[in-house]
DNA sequence: GTCCATCTATACCGGACGTTACGAATGTGT
DNA sequence: ACACATTCGTAACGTCCGGTATAGATGGAC
């Protein structure tokens, strides 16, 4: 099956290393030289394996969503709306300050604003954030149907509210907030939940 | 007094135009070509008047803080903690979606993460966000002394919480949220205030 | 009217950017 | 052992980056 010279590196390991660079420097701030150095491969190897910078970022982003960002989808499986919110907030506090990773959230700081060349990446990240918000809204709609949230509450508004708090925590983490500080933000948000 | 040929453009107008570009594209994403084109001046004029890209950004940032971002300091003057929070949240909802300006907040999206060359700008923006948070904390400490907030509340935690919500609203605005949606986030945050 | 400080515009600098030819190296299938 | 498919490293591509030298234009001071 495998014809020709086998590659000397692991695509998954290289992708994880690229993810670290994009996470720390953003899409625009991460140069190909930064990436190849961190990944331990040369530029032609990178292009052969991953296409180009944009494709590499998208693959790293997929890996982020399934890995360090996986707590979000996990939280949606909790049995009650309150547990969903509690888990997503506290797990975010952990993930956003995991010392093994750059602080903050790739989906927020990967390309919040950018030059023309990165516009499609910015759109992609906007779409990912919108999808997370929609998933949360859908979960809250279920909770409403189960009388797990007060009548008259608006699932879309609640989802946007929680998304905003998560994104605010991400900016705080990028600004140097530590784990305890993020946990106390989660405490306060949860104390007022649901905002009737 | 004024010797030599007078300059043919207004520094303040040019700075406002540069601010728009930095606001929309971020520090890294805004090229000198973008800036000179928007400002209607040539590069040597820009360098003579503003130093270099980094100094230009700092001057635009000062102008942002005193202009479109001025609602923050205004809110601190309100007589009660609740009015401070109410005003800062609702004025943020307006400012972040002002159709005359790019959506979002320059202090958040100007350089949330970046390459090495923009590291000092990132630090500057972190310091500005931290200063806003400290100003809010100081205001809450006054409120505590005036029995305007519940005993035992932590002014620093409250300031960090409100800052996170504001920053989350900024990310929402950058993602396309409209004014009504941001107002409803403010509604919900205010409903649980203070988070005793 | 002349001098001269200052601004404007063209054109260019060295370097970094993302991307790719090319040829040498390497392991598989026959 | 040989041919072949693929990867590897070097070295270079054209383009754009932030920044600047230089020469001409402009208007106040005297």
3D structure, described in words:
The structure is a homodimer of 196-residue chains. By secondary structure, chain A is an all-alpha fold. The first copy, chain A, folds into two domains: 11-64, Homeodomain-like (Arc Repressor Mutant, subunit A, Orthogonal Bundle), CATH 1.10.10; 70-191, Tetracycline Repressor, domain 2 (Orthogonal Bundle). Chain A has ten helices and no strands. In chain A, helix 1 (11-29) crosses helix 4 (53-66), helix 6 runs antiparallel to helix 10 (179-191) and helix 8 (119-145) crosses helix 9. The longest helix of chain A has 27 residues, at 119-145. Chains A and B meet through helix 1, helix 8, helix 9 and helix 10 of A and helix 1, helix 8, helix 9 and helix 10 of B. The structure holds a DNA duplex (30 and 30 nucleotides).
Beta percentage of chain A is under 5%
Structural class of chain A: mainly alpha
Spans of chain A of at least 5 consecutive residues whose pLDDT stays below 50 are none
The structural domain count of chain A equals: 2
The radius of gyration computed from the alpha-carbon positions of chain A, rounded to a whole number of angstroms, is 19 Å
Biggest β-sheet strands, sense, barrel of chain A: none
Envelope shape of chain A: elongated
CATH architecture of the largest domain in chain A: Orthogonal Bundle
Number of helices of chain A: 10
Order of helices and strands of chain A: HHHHHHHHHH
> Using DSSP, what is the number of strands of chain A?
0
Main CATH class of the largest domain in chain A: Mainly Alpha
